[in-house]
Design a protein that fits this description.
The protein is built from seven helices and nine strands. It is α/β, with parallel strands linked by helices.
């Protein structure tokens, strides 16, 4: 395999929502987490060489993506942003920890220069959009053997559609949000046939703190 082993980790409500309202940060939802499940997620971060979220997650949540609740080293933060248009005051660009931004060839040069001025490493992967397979291959070549992907819905749609995940962990918050237009774990266009579904095998179902965590292996 010429890419890292990919673990997707998603936090959703009991009815599968990734936030309480469309366009809102997931931070209020994460405030409902039990401390034990937060430590569990940070243990997974510490065991990973790299961690990835989508650019929309950076804009909405301004996450640190560091290891804070358990001992361990911070993974390399990898953000695919085709145009390089990330908020320059984001934590990932100002806290001094290692960050790699993947842009497309269509990214304006001034955006790339601004990211590099903030200390981020910038690599090119794709002509107008991010080629995830190319990006993962580049990371593998530099010694990244394991990566955790924590969303959001648009990035996960691309990961699953491209069959790039190996393990899927779904953490269920014991709440129900509802809402017809509230985003779920995976976005993107609807499948046209049931045959397009990504097949999973349940490896373990466990309780961590007050949360159910389902651990799946992706059937390739």
């Amino acid at each position: 395999m010429d890419r890292p082993f990919i673990t997707v980790y998603a936090e959703v409500s009991a009815d599968g929502k990734s936030t309480h309202r469309r366009g809102c940060s997931s931070i209020p939802m994460m405030a409902l987490e039990d401390a034990a499940v937060r430590r569990f997620r940070h243990e997974l971060r510490a065991a990973s060489d790299a961690i990835m979220v989508g650019s929309n997650t950076v804009r909405l949540d301004d996450p640190s993506l560091t290891v804070r609740h358990v001992p361990g080293s911070n993974p390399l933060r990898v953000i695919p942003a085709a145009k390089g248009d990330l908020p320059l005051g984001s934590k990932i660009l100002t806290d001094g920890h290692a960050t790699l931004i993947a842009v497309s060839e269509a990214a304006p040069s001034h955006q790339v220069a601004a990211l590099r001025e903030r200390g981020a490493e910038v690599v090119y992967a794709g002509s107008s959009t991010i080629d995830l397979a190319q990006l993962l291959s580049l990371l593998h070549q530099r010694g990244i053997s394991s990566m955790m992907i924590e969303g959001g819905a648009t990035l996960l749609a691309s990961v699953f559609r491209s069959r790039l995940a190996d393990r899927v962990l779904v953490q269920h918050l014991p709440v129900i949000f509802g809402g017809d237009d509230v985003p779920s774990m995976v976005g993107g266009p609807a499948m046209q046939s049931i045959d397009e579904a990504l097949k999973l095998r349940l490896v373990e179902a466990k309780t961590v703190g007050g949360h159910a965590v389902m651990d799946y292996q992706v059937e390739q």
